[in-house]
Amino acid sequence: MRPLPPLAASALIALALALPVSGCSDDDDAAATTNPGGLSDSPSKPDYITAADAICQTLYEQRDPLENQAASAAQRGNLDAAADTFDNAAAITERRFAELEALPRPAGDEQALAEIYEAGGTRTAEIAREAAAALRSGDDKAFAQASREGAANTRRFSKRAIDYGLLVCGRGRAVEIG
User: Fold this and answer.
1) Which of 35, 90, 148, 171 lies at a CB distance of 3.0 to 4.6 Å from 125, suitable for a disulfide?
2) For 99-127, how does the pLDDT look when each residue is reduced to its tens digit (9 = 90+)?
3) DSSP string of the chain?
């Protein structure tokens, strides 16, 4: 196990904190294929926001243990465990955003929500996997790049979500690294 330089440990913790959402168990897969919010086929925007923010609240509550796992692994210098945490976060993020994407959307808001969820779910998962690969290969430069991209992606996601009215979904923390 290679020791983790202090800057890399800080970056690892910051990247974990920059992940907009993640956290669930495998038993949540079925919920992603149905209407998890119980919304009508054409919900009002306030009803949609309530349902989406409820999902995000659960996501954020479940994310905290992953942040702690990544930080703990970084402090111990266990890069494989930290990388595993990022891979887990990527898989979880994809499943949870599938649940958000399964919600019926208010008429006329489909494209705006697709853009919000693309940044929050798909790109976040990609960045988490890039960070995991960089940790496993010992590529500090690639990890730093993933950290910067993660922070920038979180800012974009949070701004778009908040601009739409998704206050819980948009509360992701953006962290400057470097």
Assistant:
1) 90
2) 888 999 999 999 999 988 887 888 888 99
3) -PPPPHHHHHHHHHHHHH-------GGGTGGGGS-TT---SS--HHHHHHHHHHHHHHHHHHHHHHHHHHHHHHHHT-HHHHHHHHHHHHHHHHHHHHHHHHS---TT-HHHHHHHHIIIIIIHHHHHHHHHHHHHHT-HHHHHHHHHHHHHHHHHHHHHHHHHT-TTGGGPPP----
